[in-house]
Here is the input.
Amino acid sequence: MAEAHINPAILTWARQRSGINLRALADKLGTAEERVSAWETGVRKPSFRQARRFAEVTHVPFGYLYLPAPPDEHLPIPDFQTVGDEPVRPLSPDFHELFEDVSLKQAWYREYRQQQGEALLPYIGRYGIAAAVEDIAADMKRTLGITEQNRIGSRNWEDYLALLIDRIEDAGVLVMRSGVVGKQLASPALR
Here is the structure.
């Protein structure tokens, strides 16, 4: 079988990015842990079939395995969600895939609204970073027509959520939900 002359450092990066430890990856690939380790150190090369499967299991494009260095996967949005002083942890491959999908749909919806002659949404950019959270929340409630009575009058949280989604969409916002992305963060314990 022909060997895939891939970059071993990319294999390690892809495995760690996917949050899979060496043993679990070897199991998913149906091969020995020592073999996967030898691929990552460059002692051995996987076949093209094995490299394709590696890319599939670790959720990276096959071509990435030939890059001289891991790609910069900076998201064009800030991520300030941390607990205490913990650093921002890497996001899962599922999140990256979902983000790309949502970004494409958002761009399509923006273009669709423009083609339909829709006006720019008046609340976009209304507040700066220094604005008080209370002011923003009050403005959101006014924009969406949400009152305390809406919450109290809902039979359960699902009905209230459905009401919120309807009001948000009526305000011109594309609402997307997905159950794909879980808490699959890379662990520092990965070797």
Notes: The two ends are 29 Å apart (CA to CA). The helical segments are 8-18, 22-29, 33-41, 48-58, 93-115, 133-144, 148-153, 157-170.
